[in-house]
Amino acid sequence: MSQQPVWQARLIAVVAAVVAAVLVWLATDVLLDLDVRTPAVGGQPGGPLGVGMVIGSAAVAALLGWGLLALLEKTARARTTWTAIAVVFTVLSLAGPFLGEDASTSSRVSLLAMHLAVAAVYIPLTRRTTSDRVAVG
Hints:
This protein is an all-alpha fold. It has one domain (6-127). The protein has five helices and no strands. Helix 1 runs antiparallel to helix 2 (51-72) and helix 2 (51-72) runs parallel beside helix 5 (105-127).
C-alpha cells in the first residue's frame, strides 16, 4: 500500500476544515435559525453570514496555513514552529467576533464555534503531514 502524497493529505485537510465550518454554520444559522451575522466593523454595518463567506473564509485561512507550512519546511523544526503559529493565529482570530459593535451573542458564539471547528480539524490533519526534519537539498 503506497503512502498518500503530502499535497493530497493537505488538500483533504483544507476540505475538512471548510466542511467543519459549514457544519457549524448549518447547525447554528439553518437548523437553530439564529440568524448568524457578521459584526459591524469600522463604520461598515454587519450583514448576514452566508455559506459562501463561510466557505471562502475557511478556505483562505487553511490555504494560507498550507503556504506558511511550505515555507517553514525549508527550516529546522518546521512542524513545531508551524503548530505554534497556527495556535496563536487561532487564538487571535477568536477576537474577531468581538470586534464588531452590533453582533448578537448568538452570532458571536456561532462565529467562535466556526473558528474553533476549523482549527480543531485543520491543525492536527496538517501537522501530521510534516516533521521537524530539515529538508535536504
